[in-house]
# Entry
Amino acid sequence: MTAETRMPIAPPAFGRADLSNCELEQIHLAGSIQPHGLLLVVREADGAVIQASATAGALLGLPRGVLGLRLRDLGGDLAARVAPRLIEPLDGVPVAIRLRAGHPAAAYDATIHRPRGGGLVVELEPALDAPEVTGAVAAALSAILSSYATRPLCDEAARQVREIAGHDRVMVYRFGDEGHGEVFAEARRTGMEALLGNRYPASDIPQIARRLYERNRARVVADASYVPVPLEPRLNPQTGAELDMSLCLLRSVSPVHVQYMKNRGVAGSLVLSIMVGGRLWGLLACHHDTPRRVPYAVRAACDLIAEALGTRIAALESFAQAQAEIAVRRLETRMIEAITREGDWRAALFDSPGTLLQPLGATGAALLFEGAVQATGEVPGTAELRAIGAWLDTHAPGTVHATSTLGEDAPALAALAPVAAGVLAAPVSAQPGEWLMWFRPARPRTVIWGGNPEKNVELRDGMEVIAPRNSFAQWHQVVEGSADAWTPGDLAAARLIGETAADVVMQCRSVRMLIVEDQLAQVRRQVALSAQAVVICDASGAVTLMNEAFERLVPAVRGARPRRIEAVMSFFADAAALRHRLRDVLENRHPWRGEVRLGEGEAGGRLLLRADPVMSSPDRVLGYVFLFNDLSDRKAADAARRRFQAGIAESHRLRARQLDDGAVPAYQAILSSVVENAQLAALEIAEGVEVARMPEMLESVRASVARTAEVLEALARHAVNKGGTGEDA
Ligand code: BLA
# Structure
């Protein structure tokens, strides 16, 4: 459970934590110190001590106590040494001063700081002779700088710190993703049991303590069996509140933790924070089997090493990230090349299995894009890949998402664990269902805990009480159904590859848009200039194109520029019936053919309308096409044909009768073939000639037949009048 979900519970005071609230124990309001030193809260206006640890007077040889005394009353050069430092803000790393104090005066290491909430805190620890540390620090720093991998770096740091601090055991304790910790490196006295590799649960170090350790970087417990010395008075008279002891070196530590140390058999500790990128990455924990005070110089030297260690880790992690970035940049170039070469960027990702798998140490990878699925390595089936995509769409839309326990997060997908217990996914577009994903199989593995991680509760007198671990026997836990965790580096690489792919997708789509727009413009020009009258509207009925041929046919639309197809139809007569037809076309997607008449003022012309819905799939309509044919031309042509037929027949009959008179059969045969020829010509004309020109053409043929007949008749008459026979002609 997180601190947030527990917020309604009042945070327990220092030393009053129980199982329900230990995460929130107010450890910075300890109200007490470790007994080997003393703490004074000084009113700066007059230098008077207003709050002090209960034994301060005794330690300084002032049997009546120190409350109300001025700093200058405390003996030695205390006041003189502290005074010059008071011009500093003193709100960060406490300032350390070697000075003398007390009656008789003795040497102390003093640290002064101003806590949040006001006041001046002066802490005194009897001075200890420190070994010369500068040489050791210099050696340690150069060793740290020449390390090129995190583990040997931490081994080296543990060794160097042990050299300087002299504790029996020095561990680099590294925090994992779930807050648990692992002994990542260790230097120990020979003969001691190794703790290297052991894992401890997150609850061993509460979040509130971790936040404190981000500010207070070096902490000492000199003797775990100490009896805390309370501050007197408990509340600061100036603020009326408890003293914020976050930065106090002598702060009494949580009794839960003291018990933990005792359970472990640790009597003295020095713990340093390892900060990487502003976050508590881990701890340098030094344990000693016997009580051990730490001279100021040693603590400072170890603090420096922890600081350098954190910086070096940050550098190495960034280096790993930079390497991933280089690999991804290379991939980007290849994607763009693939577009030019193969017209498809996806080819670059799938041309060899290592391309996608290697940068993330994944065993499988897949791309869901534009409805297609491509995959490499060990991956679930296509339907399952789509199911993962759908799950991501609802649970992590638009973000990089990582899990090493897919089956726990999405129980419906638990069966995929043998190939995909670990999923790392990056979106490649803003479109749902377009993901690049990587997979890792479930890998049963043994986690070695330094004691049963769940045994933080024990029964005392029949009551459940919280208790820090008291069995540190190794406890082996077999973890099943989960994959190796994705590292921040994996996440960074996935994010980069995803972003790169998204860029390429965007670029591709933009290029495609330009090409399609160009093609559209061309087609639009062709349609606009076509002699065939057409109106096109989109699926909603909005007119997207109305060509010139249509405007010539219905000149009234020129000024009106109707925006909807319904409005176009209002230019035709019998609007009510037409609207009914139109609704059937638009709503039921029924094609329709029929005759329409132009409305008033359009000279009553008749048109044949072909209305067709255009479907891209059975349930998706792209729009509608309305083609208009001028029926007045066609009608005129039909009439001309009928006139032609009638005319031909007539001339045939007439002439035939007249020729019969003279009865010259040869003339009759000639006329028959002339008519036959004319009818054939008329057939050709009707098939091949434009409707508009047909009447004219037919008329010319008809006229030609009529003339031929006339000529024939004249000829025949002439022959009869001559009195000769046809045979002679
Ligand atoms: C503090 N617990 C700590 C600290 C460590 C550990 C290193 C920091 C001490 C410091 O910085 O001075 C735990 N120490 C470990 C572990 C190893 C180790 C895991 O050497 C392994 C090798 N502790 C518990 C439980 C609780 C708890 C169950 O085990 C309560 C739920 C509390 N631990 C606890 C508290 C602190 C702490 C409250 C803060 C101590 C303080 O600074 O006041």
Observations:
- Residues 1-7, 724-729 have pLDDT under 50 and may be disordered.
- Residues 259 and 468 are 7 Å apart (CA to CA).
- The pocket of biliverdine IX alpha is lined by residues 22, 25, 27, 171, 181, 183, 195, 200, 203-206, 209, 213, 219, 253-254, 256-257, 260, 269, 271, 283, 285, 450, 456, 466, 468-469 (CB under 6 Å).
